[in-house]
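S1.2 Input.
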Amino acid sequence: MINNFNNLISGGVILKLQLIINGLIYGIIVAVSTMGLTITTKILNFFNFAHGTIMTLCAFLVFSFNVGLNLPIIVSVLLAIPLSVIVALCIDSIIYVKMRKAASVALLMTSIGVTFAMRSLIKVIYGGGVKFYDVRISKGINILGINITSQQILIIILSIIAMYLVHLFMSKTKIGKSMRAVSGNPVLGEVTGINPELIYKWAWGLGTTLAALGGFFLALDTRLVPTMGWNILIPIFVAMVIGGIGSIYGAVIGGLIVGFAMEIAAGFIPATYKLGVAFIIMIVVLLWKPMGLFEEKK
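S1.3 Output.
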């Protein structure tokens, strides 16, 4: 009986530690995706609902190259990301550029329309079923019964590299500094010689790249379905609000908080309710800091 009790305790500890690992992976995926949405929201001053669909688009483009053309997964990602950026820039040039001075609500509703149009097109092309990449499933590392797959290790490494490169780009490059200037005061930025349209294009490019990475990571860690980007959009929104709308560093912290909260909660409550835990945390944070943990100083 004592051995059974010890095994039960040990099993419970391993389960909790596995939930923490799962929370870390999901949190990183949300964090990378939230960084992308934060950049476009900060520069373009509207919440782009199509962000999640761009994530889905890139994930399916990777599928086309990897499964359809039998290319290695890394090569497929390197081809899919630029294509996703081109699509985003085309959408901006055809639709959003004509609405730059429109009310944020009008842009928001337009992005919702773009979302449903793109999602329907993805379903027409790829169907509505579940798909998987052609990658070898590896157990990765197993420590005391806690498993981290090689795919999850890849997600962690690439995410850290991406986050660091974004930090360097925004803080060290001329374009990055110009983006920060335009987001703080577009009129003053234009007076100082900054071309706003160029900055908008860079915002779309950088934001889409991060969205594309997030979409690939999500499909690699879970499964590939046309609704995956839409399903993660609410956690991304919650993460952005918790971290502070407009704060890139807050997006990372907010994403990790949401990921940990949702995955750990899944070990104690039905999975359908775990998003509610993230909302509760968001409400608590906003009661304490109404502008989020990392309020942007104007």
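S1.4 Remarks. The first strand starts at residue 141 and ends at 143.
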